[in-house]
């Protein structure tokens, strides 16, 4: 990168060569940062910003560098300006940048500050002491033991994957996904049951309090999901109460899938790896239609139905889904399109 920077500085000073903007955008968007951005849509957003901000147009006196002038008119000082004028221009730049400058809605700032406060709160909680004691009739260890017992009592039994597998002569792609989901769910379920049992034993002095158990106790006391559990669960930002409700709802869907039939309306957010189920749908359709798998893809149609219980017949190809959320936009029911 140092060599690239030297090359660009020389090109700017001498004006002998045009800046290779396309190459720069590729290096930044695909090579340098693109490898860290694994989601295709996120990479698309990144490249869109690069096309908006990187080009010869940024030196055009009639073209503003930022596409928004919300609250402040951002300009690039001209080369002919004196050092004092440039410094004065820099000093005028607001300390806090309005989200509209980057083409973002004002809600983006609200979301940023909300996340910052949450992070500050979590860090503050993590610094509190873990000493037990009785203050005003409240005992920390008793409270943790009580919550651990409540969670234990609500934990369902593990799925009997061996007998479930025997039901399928030749598992379909979606049935294979079910078996994989149940295996992952069982791993999490066993981990939760064993860790809670060890924690309760440690609280009464039957075994030593390890660092892992101490972290588990702190998370339960603070109402957060233990990181050890999150390692074997879908990514989530929920607190412990909401996460556990999500966990039980996942079990309910798996149980209905096993004991009754594959859901007519799949709760996509309740799957550990939703992408595997979507891929299985494509495979199933390709087999029945005789299509080439590598030339087939998914498409989505938004219905006007809000209640999954009203769906009485499964789609012949594909499936109805629920549990999908939009961020930064909304769905316009009347116009059948994205709206803001």
What would you say about this model in short?
The chain is mostly helical. It is 51% helix and 5% strand. The protein has two domains: 106 residues, Region D6 of dynein motor (Helicase, Ruva Protein, domain 3); 216 residues, Substrate Binding Domain Of Dnak, Chain:A, Domain 2 (Up-down Bundle).
Report on this model:
- It is a single chain.
- This protein has twelve helices and six strands.
- The protein is mainly α.
- Helix 2 runs antiparallel to helix 3 (40-53), helix 6 runs antiparallel to helix 8 (173-203) and helix 6 crosses helix 9.
- It is extended and about 75 Å long.
- The mean pLDDT is 85.
Number of helices: 12
CATH hierarchy, class of the largest domain: Mainly Alpha
CATH architecture verdict of the largest domain: Up-down Bundle
- Average residue pLDDT: 85
Residue share in helix: 40-55%
Count of the separate structural domains: 2
The largest pleated sheet is described as: 2 strands, antiparallel
The share of residues in extended strands comes to under 5%
Structural class: mainly alpha
Low-pLDDT residue intervals, each spanning 5 or more residues? none
Radius of gyration: 28 Å
Distance between the termini: 40 Å
Strand order of the largest sheet: 1-2
Topology pattern, helix = H, strand = E: HHHHHEEHHHHHHEHEEE
Number of strands: 6
Shape: extended
At the fold tier of CATH, the topology name of the largest domain is: Substrate Binding Domain Of Dnak, Chain:A, Domain 2
